[in-house]
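Note to self: keep these together.
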Amino acid sequence: MTGRKNGLVALVKKKLEEEGVEEAITLHCIIHQQALCSKCLKFDNVMFDVVKFINHIRSRGLKHRQFRAFLEEIDSAYEDVLYFTEVRWLSRGKVLKRFFELRAEVKAFMEKDGMTVPVLSDPKWLMDLAFLVDITQELNVLNKKLQGQGQLVSAAYDNVRAFSTKIVLWKAQLSQTNLCHFPACKALMDSGTTFSGEKYADTIGKLQDEFDNRFADFKTHRATFQIFADPFSFDVEDAPPVLQMELIDLQCNSELKAKFREVSGKTDKLGQFLRELPPTFPELSRMFKRIMCLFGSTYLCEKLFSTMNFNKSKFRSKLKDDHLKAILRVSVASSLKPNVDQLCERKRCQVSGSKE
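Structure:
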């Protein structure tokens, strides 16, 4: 995809250059970038032990049944621990949260089984686990906001900018041992566990640097995204010269301003509004269409693969390419609606004759 000479991006740029067309905008998948940023949280010792304990319980049928029976016997809020899957976006956060809330039960069960688990009594390891639980939960919240069909790249980048601002706040609060946004850490500290604010503030700082570096390509288009999101309140002096005159005319048009306020926040209606701009705004229309065409993430592609894997299984071996193509078209077409009236007209009614 991104090879310097033979990758898709390079070939598209080369073709556009040959035809004298304006250079294409290239952006990395915003969800993939966010997932890569989370890998800078260096708590491999915590993940290694958590995965080891979970695999010890779940990979053996008898032990797994005994553990579930143990949880049921003590009236636990959960029935089981969760498997960790590296390729799933939200897996780590969910696994860590469930394990943290069942840490006492896991410790009791494994000691009862004759296996020593000293890390589950180590306050430093437990605090690292709690911090990892809290920060991965926030990363999962961001990940969910970046998913979904019909999401514009400007809205996705707004969520990333909001998260970067939250990181700055968290860093300052952690330095002051203010854990109002870190419930797992606060629960441990309230129980007497020592909390090192500077240590985790440094970790948050590394996460902030990672977000700044990986989303630098999005920052270059920040002004364009802001014009697209709300052209009526954007400062004309900060706009590119080619757009300034049209932007003034647009901001002084009360009718268009009222229509824009009506469709604001509705992607489908916003697209219709932008397509119906008068011909007196050629440069703005061109810029709006470019932003509307940008893919902020590979979410739709991932969803398509998931749908194909779900349908083309070993239990449905007679599916042909035509069948699979039809299934995929229906599954990904969110705006596809059947014309019931036309289908009914084509249906031939059967009339039964009465016998005397």
